[in-house]
Amino acid sequence: MTRLTARVQKVRDELEQLLDDDDDMADLYLSRKLAGTSSPVSGSGGASWFHASPTIGSKISRASRASVATVRGDENDIEELEMLLEAYFMQIDGTLNKLTTLREYIDDTEDYINIQLDNHRNQLIQLELFLSSGTVCLAIYSLVAGIFGMNIPYTWNTGHGYMFKWVVIVTGTFCAMVFGLIMSYARFKGLVGS
After folding, report:
1. Are 89 and 12 in contact (CB under 8 A)?
2. Between the CA of residue 31 and those of 35, 38, 63, what are the distances in Å?
3. How far is Cα 185 from Cα 126, in angstroms, rounded to an integer?
4. Nearest to residue 39, comparing CAs of 62, 75, 66, 68?
5. Where is the signal peptide, in residue numbers (predicted)?
6. Residues 66 and 26: beta-carbon distance below 8 Å
7. Which residues constitute the domain of residue 141?
8. What would the pLDDT profile of 26-81 be if each residue is shown by its tens digit?
């Protein structure tokens, strides 16, 4: 996506540069160039001089073609080329705008997905808080029930079998109250949704 946008941007910039320079557009008119190269250059010494120095010859040839183009040239040809390049420029510019809009849409979608993932992560953290709090309360309950449920003979335990039930009930109630306090504190601090 980024490479495609960069290529379209490069083509757009090149077309804009061509549209800004009339000399470059005149050089793009190939029919006129063909007509300029087929016409003989005056003087027989000029042709041998072109072959001796290709760099100077190409500069002189380019200058002579440009002069032929301006002498013979019709401004309508450049206008036609300019209209054609403007049409391409508009099409490329529209493509670049569509790619930019698509990139923004993709970025917005990524942001939305990240928000949804954050929401799910927060829900999992809340569930973990509930489970951890419940596990702590159950561990306390199991500790008390385990201590009083052992088969160790106590001298003060004889004849008081009903106390085990009350210890288990009181411990269960205490653990439920601790769990409620933890959840109330979490709601008060905003860790858990109301």
Report:
1. yes
2. 6, 11, 17
3. 13
4. 68
5. none
6. yes
7. 118-189
8. 676 666 666 666 554 444 444 444 444 444 444 445 544 554 445 445 566 677 77
